[in-house]
Amino acid sequence: MEFVPTDIPQVVLIRPKVFGDDRGYFMESWEQRKFAAAGLDLKFVQDNHSHSARHILRGLHYQIEQPQGKLIRVVTGTVYDVVVDIRRSSPTFGKWVGVVLSAENHHMLWVPPGFAHGYLVLSESADFLYKVTDFWAPAQERAIRWNDPDIGVKWPLPAGAEPVLSGKDAAAPSFRDAEVYA
C-alpha cells in the first residue's frame, strides 16, 4: 500500500496494490500492521455502506462529540470525496481537499476525527463503504452547508446541474455559524 498525504497532511490517500488477472483482482483494503507502520494506528468500531444515485450529495457531516475517523472506499461507481478541516486551532482550518474515489482506481481515503466530510456521486450510482473509529451519535451530528462560500469547495457538477440533498443538508448552517472543534 502507498500512503500519500494530501494538501492537509493528516488526510491521507491510500493506494492499495491490486493484483489482477483474467479472473478478476485481489487487494487488501485494511491491514492493521501496514496502516500502523504508516502512522495510522487505528481502531474501528463499525462498518457502514451507503448506496446513492447520480448527483446525490451527502455532507458536509461530522459529530461534534464522539468525532469519527473514517476509512473510505468506493466499491461500485465514482464519487468526488471532500474533507474540510474544522479544527479552529489547526493551520489548515477551513481548508478542504477533494479526491475522486472509484471502483476502478481502488483508492481509499483516511479522514481523521476533527474534519467535516461529504461526497458527490458522479456515476449512475455508487456504493460507498467506510469504517469508523467511534459509534454513531445522532444527538452529536452536525453539518455545514455544502456550497458555503467561505470554504469554496469546487464540486464537479455539470453546468446547470444541482445536487440532490437531504432536508438536513439543505438546511445546514454556514461555516461561520457552524459548531466547530477547538
Q: What report would you give on this structure?
A:
- The chain has 182 residues and is mainly beta.
- The protein has one domain (43-170): Jelly Rolls.
- It has helices at 32-37, 167-170; strands at 2-5, 12-15, 18-21, 24-27, 46-53, 57-63, 70-76, 78-85, 96-102, 108-111, 115-121, 125-132, 141-143.
- The strands form 3 sheets. Strands 1-2-10-7-12-5 form a 6-stranded antiparallel β-sheet, with no helix packed on it.
- The longest helix is centred in the N-terminal third of the chain and has 6 residues, at 32-37.
- The mean pLDDT is 97.
Shape: globular
- Give the amount of beta strand, in percent: 35-45%
Question: N-to-C terminal Cα separation, in Å?
Answer: 33 Å
CATH architectural name = Sandwich
Topology order in helix (H) and strand (E) letters: EEEEHEEEEEEEEEH
Number of helices: 2
Largest sheet: 6 strands, antiparallel
Strand order of the largest sheet: 1-2-10-7-12-5
Mean pLDDT: 97
Annotated CATH homologous superfamily: Jelly Rolls
What CATH calls the topology is Jelly Rolls
- Stretches with pLDDT under 50, minimum 5 residues: none
Please indicate the count of domains.
Answer: 1
Text of the CATH class: Mainly Beta
Class inferred from helices and paired strands: mainly beta
Question: What is the radius of gyration computed over CA atoms, rounded to a whole number of angstroms?
Answer: 16 Å
Percent helix range: under 10%
Query: How many distinct beta strands?
Result: 13
